[in-house]
Amino acid sequence: MDAITALALSINNPVLRMIDLLIDNDFFYAALIAALVLAGENRNEKRLEIFTILAVVLVAGVIIKGALAIPRPCTGESWCPTDYSFPSLHAVAAFTLMIAFLKKRTYPLYLLFALFVSFTRLNLGVHVFVDIAAALSIALVGYYAVDLAWRSTQLRMMRDIHGS
User: Fold this and answer.
1) What is the pLDDT of residues 10-46, one digit of tens each?
2) Separation in Å, CA 34 to CA 87, 94, 128, 141
3) 73 DSSP assignment
4) DSSP states of 84-127 as a string?
5) C-alpha–C-alpha distance, residues 151 and 138, integer Å
């Protein structure tokens, strides 16, 4: 086990554990991500773009997770998710959200959120650091690929509307 994962795993706090488990709940986490998008962005078109990017990167993460089938590090624990470990989909979503708000004044809050979510995954013992690092990579590549396609589509639509 790497040093970062071991350090995060060594922190044993009942309140933190409760927050970790709350974030681990997929329905709560999805609602939290949606609320953060809606609260942080007031332009509906940009909201739609962010939700589209989130969907694409999460699908990519699920495909990678299934293709690589790396077991969770929590074997032997009393509780462990039944899917695979690599990459952390919670971290993929959090990092994608962080990237979406890179040019906003609220970016530091989204950065802290992404780091905290990543920490909770390590603290629960359901991921190792490489799962988190991969999530950041997937979020970066996915965000910019979809954003580029989104902008290209918008430009084509504008040209079509204006007859160029």
Assistant:
1) 888 999 989 999 999 999 999 999 999 999 999 999 9
2) 21, 11, 26, 21
3) T
4) --SS-HHHHHHHHHHHHTTTSTTHHHHHHHHHHHHHHHHHHTS-
5) 20
Structure tokens, 65: 């997770």
Does an H or E element contain 164, and which? Answer: none
CA distances from 27 to 6, 103, 108 (A): 28, 28, 25
The pTM is what? 0.89
**Spatial separation of the C-alpha atoms in residues 146 and 51, rounded to whole Å:** 11
Structure tokens given for 42: 């007031």
DSSP alpha helices (H): ranges in the chain?
3-10, 14-24, 26-40, 44-68, 89-100, 107-124, 129-162
Instruction: Tell me the three state secondary structure of residue 71.
Output: coil
Name the residue among 107, 115, 72 with its Cα closest to residue 91. Answer: 115
List, in order, residues 6 or more apart from 142 with CB less than 8 Å away. Answer: 53, 56, 57, 60, 92, 96
Domain boundaries, the chain: 3-162
